[in-house]
């Protein structure tokens, strides 16, 4: 049995004729199921029809499902909301000078955990780590939370989240700005090996 076509009907995006794929049944009235080739389409922001994309299920690399969910407006466009996200602000390295991470984008998290891991020191170092927000208009950075001076091999956690009980140099009762970074200010020129990881928390 050959494929069946829907005479005169075409796909609004691709222009392909609509139809069904042939089954393994050779009878004129098939008893086996027919696979229907079809696409879901939606009107885009440019007032044109576009094919809806699919996202892979995490539990099965071979199966696909239509990705449908809320979108958030960021001032310039829509973006998907994020879950809690882990990241690396500064990879482990020996440093002697003032250092900043790249600007980090906070999509919809309210707070942040920062893990400062100092693994080696030389001499008598002193480092202050500061979580900084950035003003979109001036481009200037401002402090959200600064650590106490770190002078020895240690692991220090900084926490920023609304509603937490503030603790000097460790915990800020505050929200995290959309654009933020880590600033590291050394008090001496002595070498310190450290890394900075983070977790954005909704």
Account of the 3D structure:
The protein is an all-beta fold. The protein has two domains: 4-68, no CATH class; 85-201, Jelly Rolls (Sandwich). It has no helices and 19 strands. It has strands at 4-10, 17-20, 36-37, 41-43, 49-51, 54-56, 64-66, 72-73, 78-79, 85-95, 99-100, 104-105, 111-121, 127-134, 141-146, 154-160, 171-172, 179-186, 192-201. Strands 10-19-13-16-17 form a five-stranded mixed beta sheet, with no helix packed on it. Strands 11, 12, 14, 15 and 18 form a five-stranded antiparallel beta sheet that branches. Strands 1-2-3 form a three-stranded antiparallel beta sheet, with no helix packed on it. A hairpin with a 5-residue loop joins β4 and β5 (49-51). It starts with a strand and ends with a strand. The relative contact order is 0.20.
Features:
Jelly Rolls; 5-stranded mixed β-sheet; disordered N terminus; 19 strands; 2 domains; 202 residues; 48% strand; mainly beta
Which structural class do the helices and strands define?
mainly beta
Number of helices: 0
Portion in helices: under 10%
**What CATH architecture of the largest domain do you see?**
Sandwich
Gyration radius over CA: 27 Å
Mean pLDDT over the full residue set: 83
The total count of strands amounts to: 19
Instruction: Report how far the terminal alpha carbons are from each other.
Output: 56 Å
- What is the percentage of strand-forming residues? over 45%
Q: What's the main sheet like? A: 5 strands, mixed
Pick out the low-confidence regions.
Answer: 1-5
Name of the top-level CATH class of the largest domain: Mainly Beta
Give the tally of structural domains.
2
Strand order, main sheet: write it out.
10-19-13-16-17
Choose one word for the global shape: elongated
SSE arrangement, N to C: EEEEEEEEEEEEEEEEEEE
The CATH topology assignment of the largest domain is Jelly Rolls
